[in-house]
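Aim 2 progress update. The chain analyzed this quarter is reproduced below.
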Amino acid sequence: MKRTLLLLLGAWVLTGWAQQVTVTSSTPLLRGVEPAFYPTLNASGDRLLYSDADAHGLKMLDLSTQTITTISDLSGAGYDAKWSNDGDVYYITSKVDELSRLVLRTGMRYDMARHTSDVVLEAQHGAVHLEAGTRGMAMNGEKHNFATAPNRGVSVYTTGSQLVVNIDGKENRYTPVESYAGYLWASVSPKGDKIAFFAAGKGIVVTDLQGKVLAQLGNYEMPCWYNNDYLVAQNASDDGYQYTSSQILLLKADGTFRHELTPKTSMTMQPTCGGGKIAYTTIDGNITLITIDIN
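Predicted structure tokens:
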């Protein structure tokens, strides 16, 4: 029995050592134009959303033509903007009401064909959660909701320490791991069979669609799916006041492999994936687009 376990362990270690990751290209974006934060690639990897350090406004860079389009000038627009499966952009703006002094959030859709933004969820007080489903989009507010269709495939968001999973219009809530400070950054894998999210104090957690934990990948942040088997994440540390290091990691979704794409001293953060490409920015707002090869 001991010999069998040792052989299995040895085989796993050799597999890990044999796996190689190579950065095949690295392209700086928007240098000399403006600092850019919160980058978000579309599914094909040919368009990139970005904002300023305060998530004020939202812009789009067409990577094939290098043209920049302003989608919104409003506050909060760049914080959690998402691409829909049909290529439009959904985002949430925020403003303080002059009379009530309450923060009001409005759901918006940017139509790529018409080059205009429309209100899809009227302004309301309280959190508004934006869901990117495998077949549609949704916004969930405390008073009003919006969905492109009743059946939007698989979508997910977090609220507090709950993972909210919607499958074909049926919603279920799970607490896969304890986290008193809550969950963030939930997303569905490209094939729609796994979910990744960040749990404060625990790090990145991968579950099935019923909230069963499949793997815990380490205390990293901002996971995004590179493909159905790998994620890219941010590994940052701070002294309580400011970042002391930050780098981009490639992680296997089953927890068996980890590779540093950038060094800790690079201060790289906020990764995004799409079309086999990875983009990230730095603490100074310098975006870089890379491609990798996994053997």
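The chain is about 5% helix and 55% strand. The two ends are 32 Å apart (CA to CA). These observations will guide the mutagenesis experiments scheduled for the next reporting period.
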